[in-house]
Structure formats: C-alpha cells, structure tokens
User: Which sequence fits this backbone?
C-alpha cells in the first residue's frame, strides 16, 4: 500500500510541475479504476502530452463521469470543455459541440469561475476564425479577459489578449494588433501561463507575422518558441512549433531540415489537430515542388486537401511546372473564388499572376497585381510595406512587364525584387528574381548583365536542389535540352504575289504581315527565334500557347482587306540552344516542326497529333492523317486546327 501511495504522490508531484512524461509513467503504474476524478484528469493531461490522444480522451471521459458522480459541476464542466477541444481537433465537430453545450449547462448555475472565462474565450475564437464575425468576437474577447482577471486565470487572459491582437489585424489596425501579440507572447514566454496556452499564443503570433509578410518578427518568435519546445520532454502539441520552424528553414533555404521538421510535426500532430497537421503536409508539398519531386508534392498536397487544407496555390503551381497550363489556370481561379479574406487571397494572387502570364492572359495578371497592391497597402507595418510584400509586388509586376515586352520596366522591377528578397534572407525567392532579371536584361540586349544574373541564380538553385529552376536557367544559358513547342509560318506563293503586286505594294503587304504575325506570337507568350524568309520561327513554353498564337495569326490575317495566305506548322519536343546563337534552337523537334509547316496548305494550321496531348478539348482539330515528311524517318500523324 505504501508503494502505491508513494507512486501516486510522485505522479501528482510531476503533474504539478508539468513534468508530463514522469507523470504519465507514474500514473500508468497504478490501477486507473482506483483513481479519483482529479487524478484521472491529471493522468489524461499527461497522456495528451505524450501524444496518446485516444487514451487521454478515454481518461477524460472517466474523469467527467467521476466529477459528475461527486456532484462537482465545475470539475465536470472543465473536463467537458477540454473534451470539446479534443474532438474539435479530430474534426468531430458534432461531438465537440455536444461537449461544449454540456459544459455550458453545467456552469449555468455555478458561481463565476475560470471555466466561465474559458467558455467566453472559446466563443470568441469561434466567432473570429470560424464565423468571421469581428464584432461578436470582440465582445467575447473582452468578456473573457475581464472574467479571467476576476478569477485570476492568466491562461485565459493571455489568450484573450492574443486573440484581440489577431482581431485588430483583421480590422486593418496592424500596428495595434502586433503590439497586442507581442505583449501576449512576452507574457507567455515569462512562464506566467501553462504550457498549452503558451503554445497556442506562440502559434497565433507567428502565423499573424507570417501572414503580414513580417518574416523577421515571425522568425524571432519562432526561435523563442522552438527553444521552449525543445525543452519539453513530450510529444504531440510541440509539432505545431515544428511546422513554424519548417517554414523558417524553407525560407532560409535549408530544405532537407525543413522537410524533416514538417514530417516530424505531422507525425506528432496526426491525432491532435487536423488543421495544423494539414498545414504541415502542405509545407512538405511546397518543399518537394521546389525540388522537382512532383509525385511527392502531389501526394503531400492531396493529403493536406483530405485533412481540410486548401492545396492552393501549391497544387496550381505544380500543374504549371508540369506544363499543364489550363489545369493551373482553372485550379487557381477556383481557389480564389472560394476565398474572401484579403490575407488568404494574398497568398494565392502572386501565383495567379505567374500562371496568367504563362497562359498569355495579361488582363487577368494585371487585375491580380492590382489586388495584391491594394491588399499590401492595407496591411502596412509602421506605415511601410513589409519588405517581403514589396518584393512580391515587384516580382509580379516584373513578370507582367516581361509579358508586355517592357524590358526596361521589367529590369527596374526585378532589380528591386532581387534586392528585397535578399534583404529578407530568402535565397530561393532571390534566385527566382535573378532568373527573371537575367531574362529581362537579355531581352533588352544586355547579354553580359543577363548572363551574370542567370549564373548567380543557377548557383543558388543548384545549392538548394531546386532542379526544375536549375534546368530552366541551364536552358537559358544554352547548356541543356529542353522541351518546347516550335512553330513555323510561311507565306504561300510569295513569288507569284510579288510578280502580281509589284515591289512597292509587296513591301507594304509584307511589312503588315510581319507586324501581325510577330505581335500575335509575342501576345501569346512566344519567343520569335528568327525570321525565315517570308515567315517566322517561334518557340513557346507549351503547346496551348503555340496553338493560340497560330489561331490568332490566321484570324488577324483573315480580317485584313488584303493579306497573303499563310501556312503554319507546330510540333512539341526536346531541343537545345545552339552554341553559336543562344537565341536559336536545334534538334529533331525543330526539324519536324519545319517539315510540318512545309506540309501545310495555305490558311491551314497543321500540328503533330502528339503535340495536342494534355490540352484535350481546348482546341478543335480534324481527324488525324498520317504523312511522310521529308528527312523524317518515321511517318508523322498530323491534325489540322479549326481556327475559323
């Protein structure tokens, strides 16, 4: 008997010190059927911190029954509130609501106590994050803070202060909100609150700073939170801190460590909190996407989606990296249609700019940029834009300026973006800005400056393991084969036209033809490789853009009073930059595209059937026909595009 008493006292002592591993080990050596309500509650808490959520729930339900049997309404209500939290984290919202209602009924006739403050706090959090009712949330946060003060519950007061800070940010009162968050987090750090409340305060503060683009402040509080987490000899809830650590590590360029932290977090949190676990899987997806592990990224994004986290913009950007432009456009559009919160939209809009530019939809890209700027200006810190937000704006603007052929404007915007991301300490984002800047310099005919930026970007991408971006830069530097869609245009019977019209009229007709064809190619996001006699050789990132350009060319020429008949051929495949001219391409795919163009008739757009793979019903095409092309060993299956 004395040994049992000693073990029980050891368990109670450890629980009182929040030494949860020691508490659990001691309680586990006792007969739980002989434990009272308070010990069952402490045993449950220790199991929770050991990552044993199902056991914790079972013990809490036993504790609830024991408190109820002893007519301890406050004790039963306290456990009911904790069970409501447990089931909410598991996504069992009906069960959670049932325990919440149970707690409120039990407290209805009780004198004012900490449990009443907790009820007000839960209502405030629900109003703020689930319902978006800021006025209701404000009222409940005030009530929780005042009640917490009267009943001397520092946990509730600190969480209410933190919640009010998040509320102020949603209202656009940024500086006031951040000041409240700093105050609450400093209070939590001082040790005045218990571990669970402390962890929640850290999460709220770090998430808010990240949403506002204040990565410096987010990183500072993340360091503090992680020192605390590392001191806890427990499992489970500290996983939330690991996810924040993973985000910081990813931003700083340590991707292996970031993925390891995120995976550990998901393992610790999988039974605790669906939302936070889902965000961990999303973070894993983002890391893998950047590394070029597309299958792994897809799996992580799908897992996040299954747990209730919107997989965008990561999944849309994955589709873009795979060359599925239409799928990327649809995905990001659907995601934005479902989101109203400005800061949540801000996390998606830069991706929409990138995707829209790739699709040649500059109007949508400009609209997205305008919303980005409006939102960024609405969430200034100390009267200034966050550096990361400013960099985001400059990258988006630079992408659009590249699409508009405003080379000087693109250089200016992307220089700002490069310098700002470097100030933030984000090597991947800096390298992306440098890659785009190198392209802008080249388009402005500043080859040396362009090469310098591209070489710097390549060194960073290779160090990080960003294989898709490294391959893109190597392509721009002429070092690797790349998959492109090539398009050839040619005027039919140009010699006869010259004889019929005469030299002066022919020159005017040819100049107008050149203007139309070159404009349509560039508007679709293509690159004019070179003039080929009476036609053009162009290159595109994807088949859809090439087909759009071809259709636009034929329709524009058809609208002219007098215009020559033009034949167009297109084919997608691997090619390489030629050594003698970094702007030119060579390889089998180029030869096939040229031969297809030569096989087309006047007014026809002829495309290899395989080129249309992946764009499905986006274009109307004839039934396939097989032709032997000069110089090509195997016959090629061709289709004609219906452009009229």
Assistant:
């Amino acid at each position: 008997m004395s040994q049992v008493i000693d073990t029980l006292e050891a368990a109670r002592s450890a629980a009182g010190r929040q030494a949860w591993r020691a508490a659990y080990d001691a309680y586990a050596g006792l007969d739980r059927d002989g434990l009272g309500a308070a010990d069952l509650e402490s045993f449950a808490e220790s199991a929770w911190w050991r990552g044993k959520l199902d056991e914790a729930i079972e013990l809490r339900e036993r504790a609830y029954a024991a408190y109820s049997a002893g007519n301890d309404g406050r004790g039963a209500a306290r456990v009911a509130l904790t069970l409501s939290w447990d089931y909410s984290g598991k996504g069992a919202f009906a069960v959670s609501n049932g325990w919440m209602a149970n707690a409120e009924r039990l407290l209805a006739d009780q004198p004012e106590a900490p449990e009443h403050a907790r009820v007000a706090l839960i209502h405030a959090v629900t109003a703020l994050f689930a319902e978006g009712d800021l006025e209701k949330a404000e009222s409940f946060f005030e009530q929780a803070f005042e009640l917490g003060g009267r009943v001397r519950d520092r946990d509730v007061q600190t969480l209410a202060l933190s919640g009010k800070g998040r509320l102020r940010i949603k209202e656009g009162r940024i500086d006031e909100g951040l000041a409240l968050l700093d105050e609450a987090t400093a209070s939590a750090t001082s040790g005045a609150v218990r571990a669970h409340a402390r962890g929640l305060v850290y999460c709220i503060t770090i998430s808010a700073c990240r949403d506002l683009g204040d990565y410096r402040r987010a990183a500072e509080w993340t360091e503090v939170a992680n020192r605390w987490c590392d001191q806890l000899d427990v499992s489970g809830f500290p996983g939330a801190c690991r996810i924040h650590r993973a985000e910081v590590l990813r931003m700083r360029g340590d991707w292996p460590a970031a993925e390891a932290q995120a995976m550990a977090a998901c393992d610790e949190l999988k039974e605790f909190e669906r939302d936070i676990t889902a965000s961990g899987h999303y973070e894993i997806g983002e890391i893998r996407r950047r590394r070029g592990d597309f299958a792994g990224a897809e799996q992580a994004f799908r897992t996040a989606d299954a747990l209730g986290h919107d997989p965008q913009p990561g999944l849309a950007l994955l589709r873009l990296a795979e060359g599925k432009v239409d799928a990327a456009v649809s995905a990001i559009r659907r995601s934005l249609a479902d989101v109203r919160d400005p800061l949540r939209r801000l996390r998606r809009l830069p991706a929409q700019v990138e995707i829209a530019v790739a699709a040649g939809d500059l109007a949508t890209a400009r609209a997205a940029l305008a919303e980005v700027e409006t939102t960024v200006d609405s969430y200034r810190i100390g009267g200034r834009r966050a550096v990361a937000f400013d960099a985001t704006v400059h990258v988006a603007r630079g992408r659009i300026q590249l699409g508009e052929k405003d080379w000087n404007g693109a250089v200016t915007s992307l220089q700002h973006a490069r310098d700002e991301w470097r100030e933030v300490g984000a090597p991947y984002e800096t390298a992306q800005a440098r890659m785009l800047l190198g392209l802008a310099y080249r388009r402005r005919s500043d080859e040396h400056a362009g090469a310098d930026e591209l070489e710097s970007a390549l060194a960073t991408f290779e160090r990080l393991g960003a294989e898709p971006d490294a391959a893109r830069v190597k392509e721009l530097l002429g070092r690797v084969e790349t998959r492109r869609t090539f398009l050839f245009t040619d005027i039919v019977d140009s010699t006869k036209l010259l004889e019929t019209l005469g030299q002066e009229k022919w020159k005017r007709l040819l100049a107008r033809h050149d203007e139309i064809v070159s404009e349509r190619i560039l508007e679709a996001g293509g690159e004019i490789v070179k003039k080929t006699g009476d036609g053009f050789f162009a290159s595109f990132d994807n088949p859809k853009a090439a087909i759009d350009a071809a259709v636009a060319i034929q329709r524009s020429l058809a609208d002219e009073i007098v215009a020559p008949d033009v034949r167009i051929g297109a084919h997608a495949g691997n090619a390489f930059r030629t050594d003698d001219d970094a702007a030119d391409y060579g390889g089998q795919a180029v030869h096939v595209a040229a031969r297809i163009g030569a096989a087309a008739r006047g007014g026809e757009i002829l495309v290899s059937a395989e080129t249309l793979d992946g764009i499905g019903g986006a274009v109307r095409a004839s039934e396939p026909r097989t032709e032997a092309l000069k110089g090509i060993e195997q016959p090629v299956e061709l289709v004609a595009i219906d452009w009229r």
User: Anything to note?
Assistant: The chain has 30 helices and eight strands. The domain at 325-476 is CATH 1.25.40.10 (Serine Threonine Protein Phosphatase 5, Tetratricopeptide repeat). The radius of gyration is 31 Å.
